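Q: Joint fold for the lines below.
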Amino acid sequence: MYKLITYIIFILLTSKLLAQEKIDTINFKAFTVVDYAISENYTTTKIDSAAVASSENLSDLLQHQSTVFVKTYGAGSLASVSFRGTGASHTRVLWNDVEINSPMNGQIDFSLFPSFFFNSAELHHGASGLIDGNGALGGSVLINNFTPSYTSTAKPFSLSYHSAVGSFGKKTNGIKMAFNQKKDWFLETHIYHSIAENNFIYKNISQKNHPEEKLENGNYFQYGFQQAIFKKIKNNTLGLRFWYFNSDRNLASSMVVEDHQENQKDESFRTLLEWKGFTKKWSYKLSSSFIKDNLVYENKSIDLISNNESIFFSNALNTKYFINNSSLLINTFKVRYEYANADGVDGVNSRFNSSWLSGYTKNFKAIEVNIFNRMTIVSNYQNFIAPSISVGYTLPKIKTLLLKTSWGINYNYPTFNDLYWNPGGNPDLLPEKATMSEFGIKYILKQNKKITLSSEINYFYSLVDNWIMWQPTSSSIWSPTNLKKVENKGIETSLSLSKKMNQLQFSFKGKYAYTKSTNIELHQQINESLNKQLIYVPKHQFNYTMEIGLKNTQFTYNYRYTSLRYISTDNNWYLPANFISDIALSQKIKISGNTKLHLSFRVNNLFNQTYQSIAWRPMPLRNYLFNLIFQL
Amino acid sequence: MRLLLGYSILSLLLILFSCKKEEVGPQCKNCIENPIIPNSDSKILIVNEGNFGFGNASISLYNPTSNVLNNNVFQQVNTYPLGDVAQSGVLFENKLYIVVNNSGKIEVVNKDTYNSIATITGLISPRHMLPINSSKAYVSNIFSNQIQILNLSNNSISGGITTSSNWTEEMLLFNDTAYVCDMKNNNLLLINTTNDLLIDSVKMGVQPNSIVIDKNNKFWILCDGGFNTDFPKLIKFNPQTRTIEQTLIFTDINSSPSDLSIDGNKENLYFINYHVYKINCTDNVLPTSNWLSNNSQVFYSIGIDPYANNIYISDAKDFVQSSSILRYSENGVLLHSFQAGINAGQFLFLP
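A: Joint structure:
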């Protein structure tokens, strides 16, 4: 057994570096849970390091590689993400398993996560989000750094310089360094700097005679660094990762508004300390993280400055007990201290957010069952039952066909803003509750080494009750209430195909999502929004990436379609659908030995589409990005 | 290879598909149902605030005789949208002045054709406009300590009156004095309109939000009490003596009455406090029962047609959809109801 586990760890660690493949070893599956690799019975979207590396930031990455809805105010501006018709605060985001959503509003700004700082991403849709944490009523987004491999093939030292120059004054520079002493030490440093003017020209259709205008006040400046130190001690690894990020940006006003001279400064300190290891039958991970976010918003036109500070200190113990070759017991204890001090919130607020996730997975030949439950205490809220169950059945005759289903409940606890914002905060709010279910089929075909095909179709159905909405009260003060019940249902499909023909490598990855998200019950009133599609939830989303590679040259085409989004709850107003295409051409040049040069040129919005992602927010027309990576 | 070909064709189709019709920016489904007829006898104009940041403020026109309705009139006529948050509007010397708060502008509109004649820009966060004479008007503000002075001859900002308040609301002109509701310091500010100087301020209740004048030349000022700060008050003020003659105090601190309006005879006052209440200008107690129950609608604004004495009430519902407009007779009989724009906040009755 001991040997087996060591072997498994080897596979696990290397497999993270390789393409995502289905491996049929039961024990492997069991062990992958240690690193939160979620059972295939759930719907997941895995984004590999190549896709991460070719994107600019998390918002850009998810727009290209998934069918979650990314609501963005434009390049460098606030971007939020929602799954399956839920809201932005229903998406949990985890960095190396640590939840980083702000305790103030339950969200993160996806534009503040340059892809430079992480290596892979994974989306957990629906009921699988419970395994990551509370509040994932739609799903969760995981961004991860590579786990050090300590294998004999690892390069002892690597250095790369990244530089990008693009339209509208975009300049990005970065350095990555890694030191890998094969037996025990691993050090990694990332340094990043990015600047953009974002002063693109657009036709202002909201003004008399539709003048061409230059976007004002859209410039940003970002820098940061990340440092990792890992040490292997026998079967244990002790690791420390520190990530500092600073962003200073002006906020462009919408077309219909005269420039307000708004500015936002964000600063984040993220520290993560973890110790993981295994014994004969156990594997464990003890982690402690300290995250501090500062946000300063300034509106010069009305002399307003708002300071917001939030801190959380989170400790988690994650254990796996391998009962036998086919069953596994999982326990995760998490205690999180949340603190916020903001100008808009009365006084200083803090609370403990503790939960215990217990799970059991069992494999019966062709059937795999996962059962989880999360117990939670968040200040005055207590909840002992929040389950997530999944069952998968691999067809005995066609081994590559998996039938799967899952069901679960998850709660989202009100944020500090919801509870204590002054004026308007409502301390009597109930947690939002989602009941999620889905079933689907996954098919993988692997013929010799030339063709790989995988396709998946899932139907999901979920109910979100006690949905918290902010609305003006009679005194025109906005206040949140548990307003409505929403039904989300739809289909998510994906198809990926890769084929090798002599020197030519072809791949296609397509995804389509249909989301019907409707108000089915209004707790206080009856109005025209009943049974209508929620605002800013597109019914159809489709995207695909096509890659053609020849030796060291690669051509990439990405297309994405977003159907119309309603912007009034009675579905009278809408933003029209948009179709955006990007292309990229990249070339790898081997200079000598390990010295490589990777050049790429990307054209965004190839067909010069004029569109708005959010009402009256201009988006850039065709624009260019030139990328250089020099690797030593 | 066949698959490859298939995908190439599919991709090509999608690219072609993407070159379809051009429709950019917010679109409205019910806005073009009825063609706009210039110089029509549509007498009622509804200013719809829209949503903050959504840029969907609009103007609706309603003909009470034929019940014909036009929505999104401004955008249809001018081919650009009205802007972000149309706070209020005023008819003055045959021109409509629409105050667009978050766009920081006032659109000057021809009252017959709805064409924009001029756009007064550079205002920070305008709330209401008070015409003083043919060449001058005042603009109240939130987030600014200035009451801006407009030159109506060339439609520009000609100056400002500095106050200690960064939130001024409704205003009223009586003789040579402008009376301004000061929401920040809970005052009624008095401005001499000849020399534009602040001459006095009188303490009101917490947050005076609306002001009307009755047939006896007494002012009625409604103070909403803030967010659970104080009990709301309805104050009767004598402008001649600059004294408060009567203060009626609401019993519920959580309530927040608004939108004080007066009928054509300047005799009956109406306001919203969840429901609609009516009070006579000779009354010295607050009404104990409502004039019109909201029946779980969200009453947002009230307007009284001074010619037909019909009462118009808007129901903003969830604030992110078209408001319903309820038209009542003065006896409380529902005459008609229809859908205007989002957050219908003000009614203008054109003669």
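Q: Anything notable?
A: The mean pLDDT of chain B is 91. The first strand of chain B starts at residue 27 and ends at 28.
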